[in-house]
Structure formats: structure tokens, C-alpha cells
């Protein structure tokens, strides 16, 4: 069957033309990559990259998409869209002054993480007041005051743990079957067993880090908080 070609269409070029165009595209791409990695000022690099990108785009559309051999109306639509897209791109670049190609992006400032200051009663020479009960000293020395509040104990101003003021008066009612002393002991030994509503499991077990005498004094002190 004889093929019919529209009068406005041109015959397709030989395959050698496609090979030449492909070679040009490779060379232009290599120049783009080289220009990007060279120490070229942004105001020079931007126009170079735009021109080379347009050149590749036009070559691909003209030959590999056969626009050069189609009706002229298609070329008109293509040129109109290309000019419009180029104008919008250049307008946005100018508007936002974004000519920093190749420069590392500005890192967002990290959100500061609140820290807990372990406040202890100030005495001459620093440290914990030796006149406090042994259990209160253990409470402060172990940093419990950074998480818990105890009214009347200087430095016990924590905000992330439950208020221990009056603990002994309510400990016996917290878990059925456990006395106040049993509840306090287990809360220190395995704090994850009894979580107070509204607070996360942030406390680390203390029993393995303190001696028997210090542990007993801490429990005894907590049982005086009525």
C-alpha cells in the first residue's frame, strides 16, 4: 500500500542525523556537569545551565519527537509553551533571589531540647545539706529532685514526675493488697510497675545503683511524707 504524507510534513532524516544529535546531547550534558562542579559564580552558572538545558530540550523535541517534520502549528504551540515556562521559571528565580546553585542548603535550627537541672540545696562549699535526714540526702544525691516535687525539701522542684508530697498518706491506697511501705519499695525497685496516670515511664530503677543502707534510708524518708 502506498503511504500518503500530509503536504506540510517533511520526510524523516536518515539515521545519521539522530546519531549526530545524540552526540551533541552527550557533549552538552558533559559541559553542564563540568560547569556545575567548577568554581563558577552563580550569576554566570545560572545562565549557562539555562541555555544548555534549553538547547537539549529543543533538540530532543525537534528530532526525536519529530516536531521539525510536523505541521508548523505544532511548532508554534511548542514555542509558546516554552517561552511561557521559561518566563515563569526566571520570574520565580528573580522573585525569591534563589541563585545559590551549588551552595549547601541552610540547615534548619534544631528545636532546643529542654534539660532538667538537678537542683540541690546550696550550702557553703556546695553539695547537699548534711543536716537533712539521710533519706532526704539520698533523694537529692540520686537526682530524684530533678523529676519530683516535695514541698518543704529545698531543691525538690522537678516537673516530669509525680508530686511526692504526702506520698505516705496515699501509698497504702494505690494498689490493693500492698501496704504503703510495700508500694514505696516496689516503686523504687521497679518504677515501671506502678505508673501514675499522666506521666511517662521515665524513671530508671535505683535499687541496683545504691547500697542497702542508702536504699532503706530513702524508703524510710518517703514514708514520712504525709
Short characterization:
This protein has seven helices and no strands.
Keywords:
single chain; 7 helices; 226 residues; Cytochrome Bc1 Complex, Chain D, domain 2; 2 domains; mainly alpha; rod-shaped; 46% helix
The radius of gyration computed from the alpha-carbon positions, rounded to a whole number of angstroms, is 39 Å
Q: Average pLDDT across residues?
A: 77
Strand content: under 5%
| Spatial gap, N to C terminus | 106 Å
User: Could you describe the largest sheet, including whether it forms a barrel?
Assistant: none
Q: Mind telling me which CATH architecture of the largest domain this is? A: Orthogonal Bundle
Task: Give, in order, the helices and strands.
Answer: HHHHHHH
How many distinct folded domains? 2
Number of strand elements = 0
- Summing up helix and strand content along with how strands pair, one would put the structural category as mainly alpha
Helix content: 40-55%
Name the overall outline.
rod-shaped
CATH class of the largest domain: Mainly Alpha
Number of helices: 7
**CATH topology-level name of the largest domain:** Cytochrome Bc1 Complex, Chain D, domain 2
Low-confidence stretches: 101-108, 113-125
Could you name the CATH homologous superfamily of the largest domain?
Cytochrome c-like domain
Amino acid at each position: 500500500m502506498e503511504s500518503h504524507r500530509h503536504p506540510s510534513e517533511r520526510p524523516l532524516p536518515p539515521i545519521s542525523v539522530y546519531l549526530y544529535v545524540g552526540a551533541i546531547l552527550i557533549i552538552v550534558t558533559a559541559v553542564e556537569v563540568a560547569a556545575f562542579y567548577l568554581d563558577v559564580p552563580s550569576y554566570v552558572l545560572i545562565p549557562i545551565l539555562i541555555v544548555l538545558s534549553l538547547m537539549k530540550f529543543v533538540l530532543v523535541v525537534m528530532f526525536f519527537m519529530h516536531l521539525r517534520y510536523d505541521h508548523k502549528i505544532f511548532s508554534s504551540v511548542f514555542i509558546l509553551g516554552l517561552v511561557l515556562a521559561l518566563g515563569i521559571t526566571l520570574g520565580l528565580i528573580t522573585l525569591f533571589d534563589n541563585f545559590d546553585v551549588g551552595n549547601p542548603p541552610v540547615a534548619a535550627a534544631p528545636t532546643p531540647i529542654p534539660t532538667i537541672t538537678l537542683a540541690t540545696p546550696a550550702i557553703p562549699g556546695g553539695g547537699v545539706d548534711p543536716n537533712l535526714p539521710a533519706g532526704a540526702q539520698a533523694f537529692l544525691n540520686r537526682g530524684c529532685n530533678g523529676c519530683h516535687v516535695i514541698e518543704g525539701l529545698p531543691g525538690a522542684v522537678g516537673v516530669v514526675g509525680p508530686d511526692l508530697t504526702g506520698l505516705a498518706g496515699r501509698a497504702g491506697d494505690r494498689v490493693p493488697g500492698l501496704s504503703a511501705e510495700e508500694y514505696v519499695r516496689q516503686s523504687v525497685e521497679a518504677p515501671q510497675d506502678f505508673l501514675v496516670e499522666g506521666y511517662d515511664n521515665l524513671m530508671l530503677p535505683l535499687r541496683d545503683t545504691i547500697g542497702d543502707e542508702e536504699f532503706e534510708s530513702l524508703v524510710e524518708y518517703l514514708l514520712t511524707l504525709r
